[in-house]
Amino acid sequence: MTIPDWLKDALRKEDNPYRPKNLLFHGTVEPFEGHLKPTSWEQLLWFSNDPVISQSYCPNAGLSALWAVKSWAMNERFVPAQGFEEELMRMMGFDPDAMEIERDDFGRAQCYRILDDHPTNRDVAGYITDTLGYVLENDACWISLKDDKVMPASWKEPGRLYVAVRPEMLDLHDMRKEHEDGLTGQQWMRTADFDRIKKSGHDGVIISDIHHTPRLGHFGHDSFGLFGKTIKNMTFAEIPCVFFDPAAAWYGEKEATSPEWKALVDEVLDVAEPVTAS
Question: Of the candidates 256, 231, 202, which has an alpha carbon nearest to the alpha carbon of residue 19?
Answer without folding.
Answer: 256
